[in-house]
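Hi R.,

Here's the chain you asked about this morning:
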Amino acid sequence: MVELVTQTASNRRTLREAGLIIQRDAGNGIFVRLRREEFERRFPGLLATLTTLTALHRT
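And the predicted structure, written out as tokens:
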């Protein structure tokens, strides 16, 4: 479990440093928000593709 938490924290740090997410600590929790405009600028169409594939996988 500790390894999973460490990897998750590492992934969030990488995304935050790249400017792709905004993170805010709130007590025992963390709020993470995707910076969609920045993500779309750097990786055009990726979020739409992932959303479509996720929807197809769920049906």
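Residues 2-17 form the longest helix (16 residues).

Let me know if you need anything else.
M.
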